[in-house]
Specification:
The complex is a heterodimer of chains A (about 325) and B (about 290).
Chain A (H helix, E strand, L loop, with lengths): L1 H13 L7 H23 L16 H6 L1 H6 L3 H32 L1 H16 L2 H12 L3 H25 L3 H9 L4 H36 L10 H11 L2 H29 L1 H4 L4 H21 L8 H8 L1
Chain B lengths: L6 E3 L2 E3 L13 E12 L7 E12 L7 E5 L6 H9 L9 E6 L2 E2 L7 E4 L11 H5 L1 H5 L4 H14 L4 H4 L9 H13 L5 E5 L7 H18 L2 E5 L3 H7 L2 E6 L4 E8 L6 H4 L3 H19 L2
Parallel strand pairs in B: 5-10, 5-11, 8-9, 9-10
Antiparallel strand pairs in B: 1-2, 2-12, 3-4, 3-6, 6-7, 11-12
Helix pairs in contact in B: 4-6, 8-10
The chains are: A mainly alpha (about 325), B alpha/beta (about 290).
The structure holds adenosine-5'-triphosphate and magnesium ion.
The site of magnesium ion (MG) has 3 residues of chain B, from helix 1.
Chain lengths: ~325, ~290
């Protein structure tokens, strides 16, 4: 009986790609965190001299977490997180607003793509360490250089990912749309873009994570006045030798990233129910807001086509 | 105009030659005049798929004809169909003329609806939104559009209540092809082009779809071009069957078929039906062995 239980357990755990229940997934994640914390505690416990790893390299968990209230209150953690988020969001939103229309155009028209490809090539391979000083020369101290840094770092990737996604939509959908009477513009707006949108969204969701990392780089350069933001904070802690604070920030950043990613995942589910199985709330919302616009177009453009009117059928029957 | 001497085989009548546009006096729906299509012309991998294809489909008032195209794989059936649809790269033809209602084909349009073999439902649209896609492109107002859409969903044997708001990935293959057909027929095209639409369906679903198609075709009164690999399907559905020979493809024989009098399942047991089927099967077997 005992062995059959073991058998079952093994079979359950070692089945290839077997889906895990949500509860188990969370449980396993928590187990990993606990394991790491225990390891951390083990190598840093005891008096300073008897520790496996010295306190200058790695403070103990208790020492680290005791500094949290200081980080939260004296160093205004929330404000700094928001400052950083604001910069990266504005810069990334700009990159999306510019990059997606250009990318979609390039994906639809290979000549536009060919024309832009040298710029995309340069943009994707530009060394970030060189962009940063340039942005400071051009935009001076202050917020602008950081926002523009994120824009420049991500826009070429947005363009090429959007173009790729459009090009990957199978040609048979274009053929189908055309034989159903769609114009070129309707084929782009009703078929190509919506079919490519989930791919573009996932790509951008990943890129936002990267941009969140880049921004710290830009924040770690202090030019004039205090700039704020997580990257700047890390810089200060480094100068003052506050190890505990740095470790705390390293722990805080993934949590912030996790929250953002979960929000984006939710949006994705609500926007693309056919891909991610959500209930499509945002999709319905988008469609509802488009109704007045659609009705207006019907008023202006709609003429009952000859083939659909009953007169045409009678005509043919004569 | 005197009819050429013809050979009667079961339900079919084999014409002694494929009719040319000159000898058919009634208005023409589709005509091919010496059409040749060479893919990648001028390059190393240049390939002539069809050569010198000439045929004519007349406008049969009140119903339109149901044309089935049979032939070995790779003989150029899809090439002919897509030229009529005006889809690239088959359009434009390398030489010769493709005319629809007397006018040269310049590009695709909703007057020539097409149903493809592989599933081409728009994945991001529900069944209802798929069916009404063409009407939406015409800017038809939402209310009458959805009403008409529901009507067609019902006509196709789908359940308006439960299926209308499903996404294509929630449908079976047969249901998807029903959506694809509804989406085309709702626009009442003059010509319906179907490239092996039932190729991926199981035999029973296929028979049901054939019966449904016959019923709906009578309603929309269009000329249908129907490509299939199933000889039974061609003889059951077709008013006329074109037999094609191998590459470079050309139309070898034209058969006129008596209209079917009962359901697909029953027709397929009748001796005169089978006689026509066996005749065509022998022809195609011979063609494929000559390859
Ligand atoms: N876009 C293309 N470029 C080059 N060759 C092509 C192209 N499309 C088709 N061909 C070739 O032309 C020939 C005819 O193709 P077509 O698709 O018309 O055949 P078919 O009769 O529809 O075959 P099947 O019954 O297998 O669908 C084939 O040999 C094919 O290899
Ligand atoms: Mg084919």
């Amino acid at each position: 009986m005992n062995s059959s239980f073991l058998d079952r357990l093994l079979r359950n755990w070692l089945t290839l790609r077997k889906p895990v229940s949500r509860l188990q997934a969370v449980g396993l994640g928590v187990a990993c965190i606990l394991l790491c914390l225990t390891g951390w505690w083990l190598i840093t416990h005891g008096a300073n001299e008897s520790r496996l790893v010295g306190p200058l390299t790695l403070p103990s968990p208790a020492e680290t977490f005791s500094k949290f209230s200081e980080l939260w209150n004296d160093f205004a953690l929330t404000r700094n997180v928001l400052v950083t988020l604001r910069r990266v969001s504005i810069g990334f939103a700009l990159a999306l607003m510019v990059g997606i229309p250009i990318g979609v155009t390039a994906g639809c028209f290979p000549r536009v793509h060919a024309f832009l490809s040298p710029l995309i090539m340069i943009g994707r391979n530009v060394p970030l360490a060189a962009v940063l000083p340039l942005m400071i020369f051009i935009f001076g101290a202050g917020e602008k250089n950081k926002v523009m840094f994120i824009f420049v770092a991500s826009v070429a990737f947005v363009i090429s990912d959007a173009a790729r996604a459009i090009m990957d939509v199978s040609a048979r959908y274009i053929d189908t749309a055309y034989t159903l009477g769609a114009s070129r513009w309707q084929t782009i707006s009703k078929v190509l873009v919506p079919l490519a949108a989930p791919t573009i969204f996932s790509a951008c969701r990943q890129m936002f994570g990267l941009a969140f990392g880049y921004i710290m780089l830009a924040e770690s350069i202090k030019i004039a006045d205090e700039v704020g933001g997580l990257g700047y904070q890390i810089q200060i802690f480094q100068r003052r030798g506050f190890r505990e604070h740095i470790y705390l920030i390293i722990l805080v950043i993934p949590m912030v990233a996790l929250v953002i990613d979960q929000v984006l995942a939710w949006i994705q589910r609500q926007l693309f129910p056919h891909m991610h199985g959500g209930d499509g709330m945002l999709r319905s919302l988008v469609r509802i807001t488009l109704i007045p616009w659609e009705s207006l177009k019907s008023l202006v453009f709609y003429r009952t086509p000859v083939s659909l009117s009953s007169a045409a059928t009678e005509e043919r029957l004569k | 105009m005197s009819q050429p001497p013809a050979q009667v085989i079961g339900m079919g009548t084999v014409l002694d030659h494929v009719r040319t546009p000159q000898e058919v006096l009634r208005p023409h729906v589709v005509e091919f005049r010496n059409v040749t299509k060479t893919y990648n012309a001028g390059k190393a991998d240049e390939f002539t798929a069809i050569r010198d294809v000439t045929f004519v489909v007349e406008d049969v008032v009140e119903k339109g004809e149901f044309i089935c195209v049979l032939g070995p794989s790779g003989c150029g059936k899809s090439t002919i169909l897509r030229s009529i649809a005006g889809l690239e790269p088959q359009h434009p033809a390398t030489s010769g003329e493709v005319l629809v209602l007397g006018q040269p084909v310049v590009g695709p349009g909703s007057d020539r609806g097409m149903v493809f073999q592989d599933y081409t439902s728009f994945d991001h649209r529900t069944v209802l939104e798929n069916v009404t896609f063409g009407l939406e492109c015409l800017h038809m107002p939402r209310k009458p559009r959805d009403e008409l859409g529901r009507e067609w969903i019902h006509k196709m044997g789908l359940n308006v209540g439960t299926d209308a708001h499903k996404y294509p990935h929630e449908l079976s293959g047969g249901m998807r092809q029903r959506v694809a057909i509804a989406r085309t027929l709702i626009l009442k095209p003059r010509i319906i082009l179907m490239d092996e639409p039932f190729g991926a369906l199981d035999p029973l679903t296929r028979l049901n779809m054939q019966d449904l198609l016959v019923k709906l075709w009578k309603e929309v009164q269009a000329t249908v071009f129907f490509i299939t690999h199933s000889i039974e399907e061609a003889v059951f559905l077709g008013d006329r069957v074109y037999l094609m020979s191998n590459s470079p493809g050309t139309i070898l024989e034209e058969l006129k078929i008596e209209p079917a009098t009962s359901s697909a399942n029953e027709m397929q047991r009748q001796p005169k039906f089978l006689e026509a089927v066996y005749y065509i099967r022998d022809k195609i077997t011979k063609l494929e062995s000559n390859q």
